Amino acid sequence: MNKIIASFAGIVAAVTASFSLAQDMTKVEIKTTAVAGNVFMLQGAGGNIGLSVGPDGVLMVDDQFAPLSVKIKAAIAKLSTKPSRYLLNTHWHYDHTGGNAQFNNSDTVLVAHDNVRKRMLAGGVIKAFAKTVAPATEAELPELTFDQGISLYFNGEQIQAQHMSAAHTDGDAVVYFKGANVVHMGDLYFNGIFPFVDLSSGGSVDGVLAGVNKALLAMDANTKVIPGHGALSNKAELQSYAAMLVESLRLVGAQKQLGNSLQQVQANNPLQELALVWGKGFISVASWTEFVYKSLP
């Protein structure tokens, strides 16, 4: 039991550190996990990276922070000597796109949803963290964008990115490695904790739920699930996460329908039981209540 608690504490610390710009990147180590088939997951600071490694080269999903790029490249080099041919960004946040310029070269095509390029090009403010993000340089911007989805046929399998509307942001993509039976959820899925939903970037809690439910339709009991943050997961754990989202919307929705203000709902704390399980991350129950409340009509 102590080992399980210690492991969970480590996951929470890693996720929390992902959003801390003050973190000392020199101390971050890149952990490589074999997921299934030719798919791997890299963890460091920032969003989890997915990799397809094979005869065609390397396809990356997200790239964390720029200062970690040398370490990430070294971790990839242990798996393949071939170039990174594609880099898919699951959304525009800096802990998933920070290394874009470092990986963008003549061998690599950057791919993302239309809204990812638009938000990176314009820059903006992530209000929940009071974080101003400067407009991206040309080298950081996706070069190939899509609306509803895109399929790449690479390393012997179909790799499909599907847009999930108004979810964590307005530009989220879930990535399916069809042959390996692996799904990278991006930040629609924070494993084991309340998620951050960027309302200021067009996100909504009900949109996260809709995206999770859509992704679940493509899974079976053997599907491996790479979350945006946290440990490697599976369909059953993602279903539990979806149930938490449903219950959060139900409980806060009932309070809102009574005419209670956000402050009144936070004081009533209808999510206190859910917080015993899901409230151990960097998003407090008060913040999660606010995300849910503001996502409801």
Key terms:
297 residues; alpha/beta; Metallo-beta-lactamase, Chain A; six-stranded mixed β-sheet; 10 helices; globular
Characterize the biggest β-sheet.
Answer: 7 strands, mixed
Note the run of SSEs as H and E.
HEEEEHEHHEHEEEEEEEHEEHHHH
Mean pLDDT: 93
Strand content: 15-25%
How far the N terminus sits from the C terminus, by CA atoms, comes to 42 Å
Determine and state the CATH class: Alpha Beta
Structural class: alpha/beta
Assigned CATH superfamily: Ribonuclease Z/Hydroxyacylglutathione hydrolase-like
In total, the number of strands is: 15
Can you walk through the features of this model?
With about 300 residues, this protein is α/β, with parallel strands linked by helices. The chain has a single domain, classed as Ribonuclease Z/Hydroxyacylglutathione hydrolase-like (Metallo-beta-lactamase, Chain A), CATH 3.60.15. It is built from 10 helices and 15 strands. The strands form 3 sheets. Strands 1-2-3-4-5-6-9 form a 7-stranded mixed β-sheet. Strands 10-11-12-13-14-15 form a 6-stranded mixed β-sheet. Strand 11 and strand 12 form a beta hairpin. The termini are far apart.
Secondary structure layout plus pairing:
Elements: H1 2-18, E1 31-36, E2 39-43, E3 49-54, E4 57-61, H2 69-77, E5 84-88, H3 94-97, H4 100-103, E6 109-113, H5 114-122, E7 124-126, E8 131-133, E9 144-146, E10 149-154, E11 157-164, E12 172-177, E13 182-184, H6 205-216, E14 224-226, E15 233-234, H7 235-257, H8 262-268, H9 272-278, H10 285-295
Helix pairs in contact: 6-7
